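Review session, final week

We close the course with one last complete record, chosen because it touches almost every idea we covered. It is Delta-aminolevulinic acid dehydratase, a protein from Candidatus Kirkpatrickella diaphorinae with 329 residues. Go through it on your own first, then we will talk.
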Amino acid sequence: MAFPATRMRRNRVDDFTRRLVRETCLTTDHLIWPIFVCDGQNQHSAIKAMPGVTRVSVDRLKDHLAEAVELGIPAIAIFPVTPEDLRDAMGREAENPDNLICRAAREIKKHYPNLGIIGDVALDPYTDHGHDGLISDDEVVNDATLEVLARQAVNQARAGIDIIAPSDMMDGRVGVIRRALDQEGFQNTRIMSYAAKYASAFYGPFREALQSGGRLKGDKKTYQMDPANTDEALREVALDLEEGADMVMVKPGMPYLDIIHRVRTAFKVPLFAYQVSGEYAMLANAFEAGLLDREKTILESLIAFRRAGCHGVLTYFAVEAARILQQQK
């Protein structure tokens, strides 16, 4: 039956009806906050390319995370800003039990034992060449890198990290990491694989945050995915799940909502997206220029991920979004 008997606007006429028929919800439970941890004492430095985002030293983490915990954000993701003198061609610092990410994890668990911690597993924060794996004859080599990633993952699990998140895009790494964790008694340590991670132009501000952009020799197109491909993402997800991934991620986020939707349709598994640094920087600069409404845009950008099929989103807006959601209650 058509107009005038059917009027779609009737269910939009007032707030309570709009709430009753809303198809998708966004809550604090859907937010993961990525943080940058740096060396030194009493450090709290701004990241120019990401207005409002900071690097903090381990001794400042308790205060830095206090509001996030109070707001009920379930998990954070740690990214270490490794000092230059600790970076080498082999990424040896990744296996150091007293490296930045491990020290940060122990400090966080001491103060906030119920806060979930996600640890990035890849070698780019630790190598002097900026790549996610080992290099031989100018090639990022796959199989030799796997052995290092497995030891890196076990090292993080020993420090108390709950979820290992391999972001390197080496073939077979999920299976190798899963076996290594199980052999060391970490059967309950989960793996959130960066299953579909694209060779994107949206990572620039992140590399500035890690102070690693100038070190990268060449690009990452031999292991990160071509932005033109979609079917390939489904193959990557299927392989990671077969190897033992508990959760999967698509990265970047908003330019790849179609990938998120395809993965969600094909695989009924926990699915996450990373609203990456370039996405954040575009919105943050638009806010500063007065071009967009800050609160409305933050929530609209995040509900898009939920609508596409994500169970949760890694976003630098996590604390601010949680604050807005609490105020709306």
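Two points worth writing down before the exam:
The first strand starts at residue 31 and ends at 38.
The chain has one domain: 25-328.
Good luck, everyone.
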